[in-house]
Each structure stands twice: as C-alpha cells, then as structure tokens.
Amino acid sequence: MSEASYWLIRFENQVLVRFEAGENVFPFGSAADFGHPENPLLIGQWNGRNCYAADFHALPESIGGELMPVRSLFGAAGEEAFFLAGRGTQYMDWYKNHQFCGRCGTKSNMKSDEFAMECPSCKLIAYPRISPAVMVLIERGNELLLARSPHFKPGVFSALAGFVEPGETLEQCAVREVREEVGVEITNLRYFKSQPWPFPNSLMLAFFADYAGGEINPDPNEIEAAGWFSKDDLPRLPDPVSIARHLIDASLQS
Prior knowledge:
Order of helices and strands: EEEEEEEHHEEEEEEHEEEH
Pfam family, one: NUDIX-like
CATH topology of the largest domain: Nucleoside Triphosphate Pyrophosphohydrolase
Structural class: alpha+beta
Enzyme class: hydrolase
Shape: globular
Largest sheet: 7 strands, mixed
Number of helices: 4
Family: Belongs to the Nudix hydrolase family. NudC subfamily.
Cofactor: Mg(2+); Zn(2+)
CATH superfamily of the largest domain: Nucleoside Triphosphate Pyrophosphohydrolase
Distance between the termini: 50 Å
GO cellular component, one term: cytosol
Radius of gyration: 21 Å
CATH class of the largest domain: Alpha Beta
Helix content: 10-25%
C-alpha cells in the first residue's frame, strides 16, 4: 500500500480532520506517512482517491489536524464526509468485533473478494451488521405527534422510532412501534427516505402517517413525554443531520 490515499484516522472514538485551503479534508498520504497502521480497511473514495480507515492507539507527532466526533462532521465538513466517516466507523467496529467465528470460535480471515469475514474451519461468513429501524411522523391536520426519550438532549422532541423485528415488514413495524410507544393507531403510511446512522449500525427508514384514532398513552419505559404540537409552535427539534429533522422539515414545507 505505497500509493498516497486519504485516511480516516480514529483515535479515542474521534476522527482526525485537517483544515486545508479553507476546507475540511481527511489526512492524505501513504501508509508509511502514518506509521503503517494495522489492518487498514478500504472504505470508499474521497476526492477521487481511495480512502482507508484505521484505528490508532497513539497519534504520531507528525500527524496534524483536529479530532472530532463523527456526529460533528456533518456541520464541520459536510454530508459526504459525515457518511464516509460513518461507514468507516461501522466497518472498523465490525472488523474488531468479528475476529473469531461466532459458530466454532476459530480465528476468521477477511475475504479478498468482498467485505466479509470467513471462518477457515467451518466456512461461516459474517457480513457487517446493519440494524433496520423505522421512524414515523404522525400528522393530524396542522399538528404533529412528537415524543422524547430519556436519552434525548434536554427539551428535544422527535418522531417515533423503533427497530424492525425478525419476520416483520417495515409497515408492520411502524404500526407496532407507534401502538407500543404512544398507544395510538395510524393509517395512510407513506415512505419518505432512508439514512444510514452509524450510532452504532442502524439503517433508518422514515415514514409519514396519518392519525387514525386513540389517546396518547406513553410507554414509561421508552417515552418520557409525548403530545400533539402545532406546526406553528414546535418544541426543540433534533439536529439537522438526522433523518428525524429531515422528516419534520418536509412536513412543515408540505
């Protein structure tokens, strides 16, 4: 790996970004320039060049730049950098957590023809984990049903969301999650868009839905507060990077 490439360098759960010519970019150079990092993973391209991801246990003094959380990259370096760093983070975590076969315990090897780990003994192949989750924004005229989870930032309300269960369609998941979390029924489910969310390995699939009936009865184990909010008087909303914010903004513009 002698050619110069871009690098997603992770140190203590933050990634290194350099400010060059007024732009935020990933560090550029050969593997030797960065001390020959162990197990670099090719995660895509940046500015037309290969980009590799690697975990560092210590940063060489020669490497300059600024460390920041992946979540902060959206505002600091833009959507493309955020998604590339998110992909790299997921790949690094998956690689670190799948060194051994989950069936027989043998040391696994990275496949050469695809991004997967293969057991040399029992031939079990492990692919990067992706956990699908459904998000639903419920509309009732000029009102939106928003809720907050205890782990949200103070004052933030968002659309409802939950993970898809085995044997369940996305539509079934949406109906079930809404019913479980706030006790209401929905109809006219409409797909909005999806977003990879590397915290840690989700794929968010967002929907609009119309209110069909029932009184709000929050699940105390999941929901701290929930209610109907006028589009003209909304509470604090999620960060602009999130699909929840995209979903709410799209409703406000419709």
